[in-house]
């Protein structure tokens, strides 16, 4: 936690001013009973000095102002701290490699950025200063009391210790309940995030009742925890007031006997009663401090774990050539945390300006090969070279800028059509260039039909666009991005044949003069590739042109004859849900 705070650098000036202000307010709190004692004693003697009234008023006022200031400053530092921690985390999250996102749920990470940062800031500002001033008030009060009267002090302390003996176990239990409530709420959040983002799946499989039941169980559990908390809290409040009242009574009874035998003044007794609150309040604060400490400890362990993750490297060489050969040399790969190899010593050569195709049944590692080119993952063994240099040595951003990746389902980011076409492009393109790119991608017609054209807001995940339209927006983006290496991962697989034809035309013009790497199911796409690689369970079982493979690779030949003999089968093999998205 300490390291985290040092990273977030809360303002030292503000924090120490807040601490100073809270010291002033502590001094006021400590002085108040003593000054009251003086006033009461003067009243008892019938000779009130106006200066003691003025002093009391000034001390009360100054204490109040100081405490208000300190509260404000603390909140400010707190908000600054939350903002700094969140920025730090988001920055980190964006730098983490793709692999780290395979391992942890998105909902959990969101909760880190939102809740955990809050807990830490709460502890580091408000709770820390509360603890400091609470301890000072406690120690100060007891010292002053000792000076006033030893026996009465011991009576007060005895009462309070007794009262806390009763209250503390309850408070500890309450803390435990609060922690489990927090955990369960986070879990419910995770379930909800999942269900809502996959609402189409839920509805398509009429799984609403199942999902309702699943969240109902969590909701019930949280409710039950809440009711337990309510029971204990209901008892705790009155218990604390009862204990305090009892303590005051004991002090009153013992104290008034002392007043009547003349060993203390009535003012001293008044001061004692007031100090009971001074001692009790910090002790109550201490219990909330312990609760917050526990929360923040958990939060900082989780955040620290995240911050320790290795980032994608930022440095590296510039990519010199724009028309190098991309080459896989004996590349093996297994996903991090998995034993089994997905790719086994594969060798691939992608010549500049040519089109290569990867074919093979689903699950044979085609997308994995493409992920390695994008450097989402690094090969476990072997090397990937571009223009003779390992691609791992290039500056990551510079390398990725060379690549255009069009996947099966083109993702849409929140924003307008224009934002989406310009997504990730560093230059500012004028509208006529955007329109031209849209035209080449076959997207202009439907964009112009949209209510606000380029300014139409696209809903989350592009639900107000068809699959083919999203794909054409992705292609328009590629025309502007102008990559050297173009990767098409089943880019037309989820489209109906009419849309597929249009998208294919757009893609053909996009592929002109680039190094193209194409993954496709349809042989019509593959046949014209300069070189075809056949991937079989992570191994290259054959490569060459279509005609070469037809004669050398029986599996390929079988596939070809099947697809050309029964063109209808192809359509049936399309997954129904994806066709629906188009
Ligand atoms: P293809 O694109 O040819 O259908 P993939 O490259 O997507 O195949 O997958 C190849 C294998 O790697 C599959 O067995 C799949 O289960 C596994 N795999 C894919 N992505 C991941 C991942 N992120 N983590 C672990 N295993 C994965
Ligand atoms: Mg794939």
UniProtKB/TrEMBL annotation:
Residues 18-295 form the ABC transmembrane type-1 domain. The chain crosses the membrane at residues 55-74, 128-148, 154-174, 232-254, 266-290. It comes from the Bacteria. It is a multi-pass membrane protein. This is ABC transporter ATP-binding protein. GO terms for molecular function: ABC-type oligopeptide transporter activity; ATP binding; ATP hydrolysis activity. Its main location: membrane. Pfam families: ABC_membrane (PF00664), ABC_tran (PF00005). SMART domains: AAA (SM00382).
